[in-house]
Amino acid sequence: MKIRTIIVEDEVNARKAMENMLDFYFSSIEIVGTAGNVADGVKLIKKELPDLLFLDVHLPDGTGFDLIKKVADLDFNLVFVTAHNEYALKAIKLSALDYILKPVSPKELNSAIIKVQKALENKEQINLQLETCVENVKENNQQKKIILNTSDSVFVVELEKLVRCEASENYTLIIVDGKEKIMMAKTLKEFEEMLSGYGFFRTHQSHLINLNYVETFDKSNNNILLKTGENVVVSTRKKESFLKALQNFV
To answer: Following DSSP, what letter does each residue of 30-98 receive, concatenated?
Structure first.
């Protein structure tokens, strides 16, 4: 079964390069159209109803996020294509959507398409991710959310309710206010990068905490008491930067 695909990319050379790679390397992909801006992309998507959309973040008449808002009621999988942009990547990562960086390589395309083939089996999850992404990029939206996708379930968690993350080898245990615990097959470093700028601080090689939940910090033994009643240690080398982050946060 062919995966009906649309590319929305304003750079003609980049669009042609992706078309050529998809045609040459991926027999499962059928390109049903391309567009160079938001307006044309929306029309094409509504006409062709694709299975998959490769979407540039920056377009002449808006952003990829603007386009999503206009077609969010439709069912399709999505892979963002972007140059490095911290704000855009954070929104994409929080929503557990896939992305590839420019210049696009066949290896990255292959990885993205493998994920797409698996994700196409779960339309409800895709819609949930798109909805979360749209909400996360809204201006003045303070209620950012993160999608936590495990082998059994998909959790949508408000960042303000995410208490802490704890490393467990190559996994991370996520503790949500209300005592819910979610084991994720990602490293703590990945969550540290994803949550930086949202009031989280890595106090130790094994701990990443939400500064909103700090109740007290005992400087004598480098121990943090959280509002949930849990205790988290601060490593000696992190103590000074933690105190500075806490002061700036408050």
So the answer is: EEEEEESSHHHHHHHHHHH--SEEEEESEETTEEHHHHHHHHTTS--EEEEEES--HHHHHHHHHTT-E
